[in-house]
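Supplementary Methods S3. Complex input for the glutamic acid-bound model.
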Amino acid sequence: MCGIIAIISSEPFDVLEGLGRLKRMEYRGYDSYGFFSDGKIYKKVGKIDLDGLNGKTRIFVGHTRWATHGGVNEINAHPHLDCTGNIVIVHNGTIDNYRELREDLKNRGHVFRSETDSEIFAHWFEEGLKDKRSIRDIVLDIFEKFKGTYAVIVYIKDLNKLVAIKNGSPLVVGLGKDKIFIASDVYAFLDETQEVIILDDYEFLEIG
Ligand code: GLU
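Predicted complex, serialized as structure tokens:
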């Protein structure tokens, strides 16, 4: 188990707000954490530390990890990136057939940096977008080929697009006034909105 969250907002908000919301999901798993905000990735081993962080962002993508594949260290902490750094992903769950999917992507020239099962999502999107496939087709292929459980949030920087995919791990969407939240648990955003969409297995969401 672990917690994932994305916040996309029309107005800049404090990075600390994103981190505070991520911290609310720490009970789901907390050996390490990481997030993407304002164009940068931060990763740390241990509990979420709210000290010393400032700055604003319009997009925040965060993860608290409970390691299943690969040791507990900053390289294996999420978010993970594709080869170019354009695609940012966080994943909750496990992919049972990740070895064969990873080998296939490696044979197509992809370079993996972590030991996690999760990183395949980033390279899978990179490969699909390179082939000019639609997000829908890329995701439907994931539903067909990835065995295991997953709630995944993907942020594609150059398209400013968020994609959320659910199969087996929880994922809920909150519609705020200026913000959309996607998270493992409504607890992450209920103070700001009670307008909630609960995603079902084999459902996905594309924003942007
Ligand atoms: N299987 C992934 C990993 O080991 C995600 C674990 C989780 O759900 O925190 O990084």
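The chain has a mean pLDDT of 96. The chain has one domain: 3-207.
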